Amino acid sequence: MHQGLVWRWLDTGRHFLVWLFVDIPLGIYHLWQQTALSFEGQLAVVVTTKNITRPLFQDYTREGRLIGFLMRLFRIVLGLVVQALLVVTFFLLLVVWMALPFYLVWQILHNILGIILY
User: Fold this and answer.
1) Is 63 in contact with 39 (CB distance < 8 Å)?
2) pLDDT, tens digit (0-9, with 9 covering 90-100), for 47-88
């Protein structure tokens, strides 16, 4: 009877660790993918890069080509900055999520040992 409880407790701990270190990081990764695709749909960096030499609004004058090039260049730079911020943000979120359990265990042990020793 007691062995079943111990195995059930160990199995629950294993499920918790899988949730903590596998399921949630995969969820963070999938959220990053969805967010990146959403921003790509809004900013269209790839499409804008392909069309950088085409005139904007079919204005084939010299000024139209220059303005189109500069507008598309600005949009590409803005899109790359937004995507870089997304990568950094989600990477930091993942690092914090993975480090938080170790930090909490360390703090608990530090406080318990501090109470016992003093």
Assistant:
1) no
2) 999 999 888 888 899 999 999 999 999 999 999 999 999 999
